[in-house]
Amino acid sequence: MSMRWLTILQFLEIFAAYGIVTLFLPWRILRKRFRCFSVAEQLIAYFFAGNFYIIYLVYLLQFLRISSRVTLLLGTAGPFLFIWIWKRKKQIPGAMESLLVRIERLLDGERGKKTSLAQLRRTVYERCFRGKRKQWLHALPEIAVLLAAIAAITYVYGPNMVETFGYKASDIPVHNYWINELERNNIWVAGVYPYGFHIVIYYLHMVFGIPTYVLLRIFGVVQTYFVYLALVAALKMVCRGRFTPYFGILFYVMDIFNQSTYARFESALPQEFSMIFVLTSVCMAIRFFQEFAKERNGNCRWYLVQFAIGFSLTLTVHFYGTMAAGLFCIGVAVGFCFRFFRWNYFRRILITGILSVLLSVLPMAEGVAMGKGLQGSLYWGMNVITGDKKQGDADTAGTLSQDGVSDSLTAGESSGNATKNGETGSVLSQSRIEELRKEAEERIQKQQKPLSERLKEKGSAVRESIRVNVMNVKPYIAEITLGSIAILLLLGILLAVLRENDFAGAVLSAAVYLLCMCSLQCASLLHLPALMDANRCGIFLCYAICFAWALGVDAVVYLAIRRWKRRWIGEMTSLLILVMAVTVVLSQGLIREPVKVGALEDNGAMVCVTNILRENKDFTWTICSANDELRMTEFYGYHYETITLLNQLKDLGQNPEIIIPTKCVYFFIEKIPVSVDGSTGHEEVTEEGAKEPIPGGSGILPYTKESRWITMSHMYEWAQRFQELYPNEMEVYYESDSFICYRLQQNVNSPYNLAIDYGYNNPMPK
């Protein structure tokens, strides 16, 4: 089987496994509880419940240090089976007796296989189709639209998945390491961090037996489907039209956004996983404001529960998702301000928000109580939020006095080419003094400009920032984005005037949310706190744009047909407009080209890893490669660093024997080095590269940029010389135009000595 077809089958397996634990099992238990809600609300409720349960189940077992496949299966199946049996305890004896009678008749030949199959088909027909013809006919158009949306997502993200097999982000090996440590019940191995994403991957690996490296290769596209479908589900909750929510997917697959805003969807990363819960959780709060006004207290309680669970999941997975959800909550507070500040609403929302934060913080607080510090990226995120810079910049910038001159300059005493700051004792050069004076003069000049001119300049800067960082080269998209905020506000006000308060609140909430996200994207220009860096913010901004635009289209359609009370008119109108929009987009070629994201490993390396795991017993082999395969194969075999071998070969006097005592040793060598952290500047390994000194440094440094070309050139020359010495034992295991893998088969009781003079062991700098 080719690697492409294997990847497709693995994708279907992962999608099915994740769907079973997050949708099917919760549906089996909770369907009666949520049957009075809409289909979209039910799906979101099941999805929240499934993710929440498995995440906190793993947290509990990890803290007790008893997490394993057995305990996870018991923790998953046990409660579901108990509830199922308890609800059907009176029916089970009769059902068991009937089943045993059927089996006995089948074994005795009294009942044929054809009869059994015919009865099974009849049972399926009666449960799923009998008397439901109208329901299926009514659902067929939406099923067709949904399949078209799935096809569009597959067209954009599927080809790269089946063409590029390796990890596509540099931090995935780190996440791989953290997930592997969960298998050892060693949570918080690198410090306290939101572990929701890692727990989901770990759970799927342990329960379904899918290797972690396969999940991290493919789950990025799986979660992308859920990100898109969550957008539709969230819109379904707040839109009035039946088909207008699918405009969200249409806008998202159009070629109007910068590739940096969606390229990360090809990788399995926590931030993108958190996006599934951003819109869906806050839309539950919108539904609470809409339904509580109608005094449907029974349903409202569950809306608040789902909001608490969904919002807590954003923080459990990634704090950037929480920031985006928090800004949307601000939008809801403004959009429903006529209800938000009433005590009956406010106290419920306040209590729910506090509980949701406590739910997510509690496991991390337990980690801190266990003596674990925060993981490094959390400190980095805090520095981004606080705008922490180098102390020298903070000191020299100083504070400006009323006349615009730095206090540190007026307080200092000029002496030659330097001035000493009286407060900090830092020394400023004369050139730096002149720079500060010029900056102060420019600020004074800007303050003297008319307010209208300053606002115009600021608006131009904001528009340009959004155009460059978020949108592609197509004209007027940034202007349309900013203009859509005003249009949404006008639509919301018009709906409020028409006394459509529930819908008006949702539209105004989307408008304010989009305004907040645009402001966050340009925070430095607007002198606002930068809660997240511009590149990450652009990803959430695009998600907000698609949500807001789709809701705006729905509002326009609703206003156009609101006088006609017949439901079918609204459905046909929304479907017709959607079909027309799709036709225009396709005819104008506005659909994105399939995403192309390179991997940090050659495709040949992933093919070899897959075959090695299938062909060998565990821990009878070793892979000698760059550090990419270290965490992939940690629980199956051994790994030897390429740079470690090359450093040992530099001094054969000190290292007369280099032995790897396993039955098989595989050497991964890139004939065309992969570009990691910058181009290598060379198309293929050469003898000239082996003449260069072996790269120094630790970690990934010997495998980046020019160093990777030198490392692979040395390794290729060594492999050639070693094969000349042992042609029967050192064989080519796999080879392509860009990659070659050698396999050394040896007797573990008498392994080969890898310490040979290959001619370039320790070349000196030229």
Major β-sheet strand ordering: 5-4-6-8-7
Strand content: under 5%
Helical fraction: 55-70%
Assembly form of the protein: single chain
Shape: globular
Mean pLDDT: 85
Q: Find the structural class using helix and strand composition.
A: mainly alpha
Spatial separation of the terminal alpha carbons: 48 Å
Q: Biggest β-sheet: count, sense, barrel?
A: 5 strands, mixed
- Rg estimate, integer Å: 31 Å
Low-confidence stretches: 389-428
State the helix count.
28
How many β-strand runs? Answer: 8
Describe this structure in words.
It is a single chain. This protein is mostly helical and 766 residues long. The protein contains 28 helices and eight strands. Helix 8 crosses helix 9 (212-238), helix 12 (297-317) packs antiparallel against helix 13 and helix 20 crosses helix 21.
Provide the descriptors you would attach to this structure in a database record.
single chain; mainly alpha; five-stranded mixed sheet; three-stranded antiparallel sheet; 8 strands; globular
